[in-house]
Amino acid sequence: MQDSGAVQLKGHFLIAMPSMADPNFSETVTCICEHNENGAIGVVINRLYPSLTCGDIFAELGITAQAAASHVGVYAGGPVHANEVFILHSEPAGWESCFAVKPALFMSNSIDILKAMAEGRGPDAMLIALGCAGWGPGQLEREIAANAWLTCPSDVEIIFQTAVDKRWRAAVWKMGIDPALLADTAGHA
Hints:
The chain is of the alpha+beta class. It is 21% helix and 33% strand.
């Protein structure tokens, strides 16, 4: 059981500070899908592969797809499990491997949702990613304490409706912070 005083980040955005040196996370926004005493897992929502599409994933899995579904872009969800598919989506939520991140936002990674997407029967709003981001017990908390990340509640409009290249700025603005005012070096008062 997690300490009742511990910060719970499930359903929050993890926003990389400008000083983030790790190229996997520089200028990223990650939606934290689970956070507990065992660590955290999330999906980066603003790193679109330049030439990879859902059609490539469907072909790899032998799934026949409608043309519209095949042209949907694929995100680099993070450096962990880089060959696995993770889908952030709106309702419905009854897929084989699906759990709620927060009301109206779910994560799935089962073949039934991929087949439904290929046939045009998937959720209205979805983001498909290869890989995820992961942190061991206490690791994320230490990184936040070291000023590597900002956090705020996630926003489905930013995930599904904001242009990919504007998501980092939109997430920072959601916190009431002008992104131009963020220093690219961390410090403690």
